Amino acid sequence: MLDRELHVLLRKGFYYSNRAILQQILALGLFPGQPKILEFLLEKDGAMAKEIGEGCVIDKSTIANLLVRMERQNLVYRKGHPSDKRASHIYLTEQGRALAKQVKAICIDVDTKAFRGIPPDEQQQFLHTLRLLITNLEEESE
């Protein structure tokens, strides 16, 4: 049966989680891709575009376009790298930080609903196993 195959379950889990998150995030006026960048920068403000792309699993051209749009919306700003003129660090603006906190709260709420009825130790074991699966898949894709 398909419901016993990892790739099917991952796809279904992503679909329902993403759907629940997007329904709430669209009301904030954000575009697809922006919420995960905001959430990433909330943890690693001042990251470079390459780091953001890798952390959010977004390709180079898409991240560049998203960051330009986010700058225009006053969600992020760039500050030049001190030794590399071609590179810049990306920071949240006050408005970006406020939205990032809302995004984080929405995601935590959806995660909490997904884990409903599952004991904390099983939640941690699941997350540990999922991280191992992702590491295995990352190694295969290199």
From TrEMBL:
Signal peptide: none annotated. SUPFAM superfamilies: Winged helix' DNA-binding domain. It comes from the Bacteria. Residues 1-135 form the HTH marR-type domain. The keyword Nuclease does not apply. Pfam families: MarR_2 (PF12802). The keyword Transcription regulation applies. Keywords: DNA-binding, Transcription, Transcription regulation. PANTHER family: TRANSCRIPTIONAL REGULATOR, MARR, TRANSCRIPTIONAL REPRESSOR OF EMRAB OPERON. This is MarR family winged helix-turn-helix transcriptional regulator.
